[in-house]
Amino acid sequence: MHTKYLDVKGFVALWREALLAREVLKGKTKGWKNHPQLNRFKAVKNPIPYINAYLKNIYKEACKRGYNFNQKKLGRKLTNKKLKVSKGFFEKEVKALKSKLRKRDPAKYKKLSKLKDLELNPIFKLEKH
Fold first, then answer.
1. What is the pTM of this model?
2. Parallel, antiparallel, or unpaired: how do β-strands 83-85 and 124-126 relate?
3. What pLDDT, on a 0 to 100 scale, did the predictor assign at position 47?
């Protein structure tokens, strides 16, 4: 989903995890290789431009929030192509986020619960069935 829905803790963790994911995709680390979130990136022929585009979207949101993330960590090769996400997976992610927000940030949970249609991160698009 779009990063704007994440609380501070989840957002900062996403940045760190996405940077780690890129290192995994580059073959530069042994840990986290089989994480299910990596599968969508691994499924494309050249995943680095996709993960770089994902990181850039996170960085843009960080700037909007006034966070000081290191722009030098962004990759240069990006893509405008989108990765497909199933509606079921998206709904599962929304449910998981709501569960976390209910405990960590009740105000953000309340705002999120009122929204009907949540946006995806711009790098993704819902599969049509």
1. 0.90
2. parallel
3. 95
